[in-house]
């Protein structure tokens, strides 16, 4: 098993080197993509600075806490966009053209090759920018170092990445039957928009059932809320356990559904 993991890590490193070399062939395009991400983060921070200029809290989160939340979201979204989004967007085209046949013939796990074969280096700086925002927010609030909170944050943040990946994989797999998945991937932007806000904004309003649904049924609100809450607000063991259980179940479900979709695929030669 250890040899298999090392094999996949070496392969992933080589894929990363290849995509980086290809990205650097068009440096102008790379710089434009990075500039767009910097501007987007600047607009996001300016918007929340304006909001907090008029109030002290948003949905029970004060300014430094919410700044940490924004940094965590930006980092997580950057990871998804860098490592998975472009690959999942391309899946429908692979199905439509029959190029999926060539990937399925490779002696490697199909899910790994389909969802991880490219790295979008133009969005990779988002990880550093989001991390910088989190560090600044912790400094502003004078956060006392707490190893338990830090480890809980890292574990639940990893779970958040896995949950987001699982939802994207489920949407991707539907392309086998629907062929064109532009509208399907627009649902991913809906999910990511929901993950951008604390779940407390739904509390005590007409939208509270929506918050409950996207927390406990389709747990997209867990991906940023639970790790950020554990780090800078209240450590809730029940929500941490629920996040871990949800991650395992979603990973199992998305994997099974994706393999079922591949079995239903009819190659271009059939």
Characterise the protein shown here:
There is one protein chain. The protein is mainly alpha-helical. The model has no long low-confidence stretch (mean pLDDT 88). The protein has twelve helices and two strands. Helix 7 runs parallel beside helix 12 (237-264). The chain has one domain (2-264). The longest helix has 35 residues, at 63-97. The chain is globular and about 55 Å long. It has a two-stranded antiparallel ribbon.
* Run of helices and strands: HHEEHHHHHHHHHH
Ends apart, CA distance between termini: 35 Å
Q: Fraction of residues in helices?
A: over 70%
| Count of helical stretches | 12
Major β-sheet strand ordering:
1-2
Write the layout of secondary structure elements.
Layout: H1 2-24, H2 27-52, E1 57-58, E2 61-62, H3 63-97, H4 100-104, H5 110-116, H6 125-140, H7 147-173, H8 175-178, H9 182-195, H10 208-217, H11 222-232, H12 237-264
Antiparallel strand pairs: 1-2
Helix pairs in contact: 2-3, 3-6, 3-7, 3-11, 7-9, 7-11, 7-12
What's this, in brief?
By secondary structure, the protein is an all-alpha fold.
Features:
270 residues, mainly alpha, two-stranded antiparallel ribbon, 12 helices, globular
């Amino acid at each position: 098993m250890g040899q298999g993991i090392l094999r996949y890590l070496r392969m992933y490193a080589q894929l990363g080197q290849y995509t980086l070399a290809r990205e650097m062939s068009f440096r102008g395009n790379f710089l434009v993509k990075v500039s767009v991400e910097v501007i987007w983060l600047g607009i996001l921070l300016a918007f929340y600075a304006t909001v907090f200029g008029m109030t002290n809290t948003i949905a029970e989160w004060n300014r430094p806490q919410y700044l940490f939340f924004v940094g965590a979201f930006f980092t997580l979204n950057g990871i998804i966009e860098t490592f998975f989004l472009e690959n999942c967007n391309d899946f429908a085209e692979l199905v439509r053209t029959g190029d999926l046949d060539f990937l399925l013939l490779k002696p490697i796990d199909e899910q790994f090759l389909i969802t991880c074969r490219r790295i979008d280096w133009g969005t990779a700086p988002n990880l550093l920018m989001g991390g910088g925002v989190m560090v600044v927010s912790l400094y502003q609030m004078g956060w006392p170092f707490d190893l338990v909170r830090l480890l809980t944050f890292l574990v639940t943040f990893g779970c958040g990445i896995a949950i987001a990946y699982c939802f994207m994989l489920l949407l991707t797999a539907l392309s086998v039957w629907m062929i064109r998945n532009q509208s399907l991937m627009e649902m991913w932007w809906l999910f990511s928009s929901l993950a951008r806000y604390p779940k407390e904004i739904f509390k005590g309003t007409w939208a509270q059932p929506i918050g409950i649904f996207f927390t406990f049924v389709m747990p997209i609100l867990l991906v940023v809320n639970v790790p950020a809450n554990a780090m800078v607000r209240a450590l809730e063991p029940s929500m941490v356990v629920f996040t871990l259980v949800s991650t395992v179940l979603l990973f199992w479900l998305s994997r099974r559904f994706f393999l079922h979709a591949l079995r239903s695929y009819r190659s271009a030669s059939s």
